[in-house]
TrEMBL record:
<feature type="compositionally biased region" description="Basic and acidic residues">
    <location>
        <begin position="565"/>
        <end position="577"/>
    </location>
</feature>
<dbReference type="GO" id="GO:0000136">
    <property type="term" value="C:mannan polymerase complex"/>
</dbReference>
<dbReference type="InterPro" id="IPR052086">
    <property type="entry name" value="Mannan_Polymerase_Subunit"/>
</dbReference>
<feature type="compositionally biased region" description="Polar residues">
    <location>
        <begin position="553"/>
        <end position="564"/>
    </location>
</feature>
<dbReference type="GO" id="GO:0006487">
    <property type="term" value="P:protein N-linked glycosylation"/>
</dbReference>
<dbReference type="InterPro" id="IPR029044">
    <property type="entry name" value="Nucleotide-diphossugar_trans"/>
</dbReference>
<comment type="similarity">
    <text>Belongs to the ANP1/MMN9/VAN1 family.</text>
</comment>
<feature type="transmembrane region" description="Helical">
    <location>
        <begin position="148"/>
        <end position="166"/>
    </location>
</feature>
<dbReference type="Pfam" id="PF03452">
    <property type="entry name" value="Anp1"/>
</dbReference>
<feature type="region of interest" description="Disordered">
    <location>
        <begin position="502"/>
        <end position="577"/>
    </location>
</feature>
<feature type="compositionally biased region" description="Basic and acidic residues">
    <location>
        <begin position="502"/>
        <end position="533"/>
    </location>
</feature>
<keyword id="KW-1133">Transmembrane helix</keyword>
<keyword id="KW-0735">Signal-anchor</keyword>
<dbReference type="GO" id="GO:0000032">
    <property type="term" value="P:cell wall mannoprotein biosynthetic process"/>
</dbReference>
<dbReference type="GO" id="GO:0000009">
    <property type="term" value="F:alpha-1,6-mannosyltransferase activity"/>
</dbReference>
<keyword id="KW-0812">Transmembrane</keyword>
<protein>
    <submittedName>
        <fullName>Mannan polymerase II complex ANP1 subunit</fullName>
    </submittedName>
</protein>
Amino acid sequence: MLACPLFLPCQLRDTSSNFSIRRPSAFLFRLPALVSSSLGLGNLYPALKAFASLNCKDHHCTPVHWGTGQGFIYLWTLRLQQQGEAALYRAPDTHVGCVGDMNRHYAFTNGYTAYPHGESGTFSISPHRFQPRSQPALRRRRQLIQRLFIIGGLSICILTLFFPSWRATIFGTLTLGLLSANDDFQLETVRYYDLTNAQGTARGWEREERILLCTPLRDAATHLPMFFSHLRNFTYPHHLIDLAFLVSDSKDETSSLLTQMLKDLQDDPDPKMPYGEVSVIEKDFGQKVNQDVESRHGFAAQASRRKLMAQARNWLLSATLRPNHSWVYWRDADVETAPFTILEDLMRHNKDVIVPNVWRPLPDWLGGEQPYDLNSWQESETALALADTLDEDAVIVEGYAEYATWRPHLAYLRDPYGDPDMEMEIDGVGGVSILAKARVFRSGVHFPAFSFEKHAETEAFGKMAKRMKFSVVGLPHYTIWHLYEPSLDDIRHMEEMEKERLQREAEEKEKAERTKRIKEEFKDTKAQWEKDGAAIQDMMQKDQKQQQQQKQGEATQKQGSKAESSPDSKTPSDKSN
């Protein structure tokens, strides 16, 4: 049995005993074919066609109708029996005659009419035309299009359900941009962010991940030229780096010089030089500790100084961190030497928190170099035992004899020839250079301005990150160099060394002058020696000549004396007589 409801509009005409229906509209005859093709009922239309040739006067016919007047809606129910008969049912209180037999020899050339002409009975349906059945190819094409629309609709529903980030694109495409995510079609006071794209990866420069570079400043006018030279040399794309500065409790020209240098940097003609968003925040925290080395690194000022520095870092971070930031890089302004690729080098490790090793150069008379940042360390049992003995508000600081923690420090494990990519798990971190994923701060990790596990600021930040199961590592063989700032002891020693140097120079100068005078007095010693030698030779020759003359004189005298003493000898006078 096959049943199909059809809603057929028509008009009712009563002629005495005959009850007839006027010609339906063209839609009446197309509707069976459309319904049968859309529902895949290929044998419905032939069944309706066969209705015209069947005799139903022995059957009950019932049209079910709603409404009054001339407008009626008939629900025709077609039942196909095994004998090929069709019955038209009507209500018991309404008499409708049955259609007589239809002669198959009076059919139209293109098929039988939709409803036969009744010769005997109380009514007849007389259509003047009908819609031919749909072609099989057209039906298949319609079915294919409908199935494609259904599959496409289901796919869109699945995509929008499981991929919320695609909803704006899908709705914008389907509505031709009328419901797109452009700012022109959204509320000006509403911003939409997808934090799934700001997680931080090992190759952020390829994925265009943004970095927030934070630098606290206080009386740093002398360090700003060096700091901006590092900014110009960074190899990470500058347009992906946002700069954030906090100027606090400064008495020098830090603020004005910072503004001028930022203007020069952002107005640089090189298109790769300007940075992204730049924020300068001014906030004083009542820091009374001086900026000289002795005051900043003195043991008495460490606890209060660290807590105020933690407040400054938290203010700067909370005011400048944006939803599109994937990384946060903390950098001190007094770093003297660092690789230009430090951001990529640290990012490549893909750790939640990572720090390099920090040393500082020294004069030759102090050894040439020295570990600087001792705040990066691994926890030790001795330090834990020490923390249990301290007050609740106490703060342990490294590098002081008052707190002997015996912790392994990252700085002391440096090997100049070691692997720079070697990692070391640490608990405390130093604040000279920190690269952290932004999700670490979004998860609640911050710089405690109170005693957290007997630590504050960056060291407490490292312990809090470890407590929240984030990875905290250091690179013992990857070294950056902090600016050398002599302490008071160094200054005294240098003053003593300067006095010794001046005294030594004075002695050397006096010795040089004495030597010069001696040289001036005896500048022709060889000639003098030759002259003296010649004089000596002359004197010797004269002595020899005198000796010879004396000898000759003595010989002459001897001969004369011999002649006088001889008897036979006579004088010439005697001979003349």
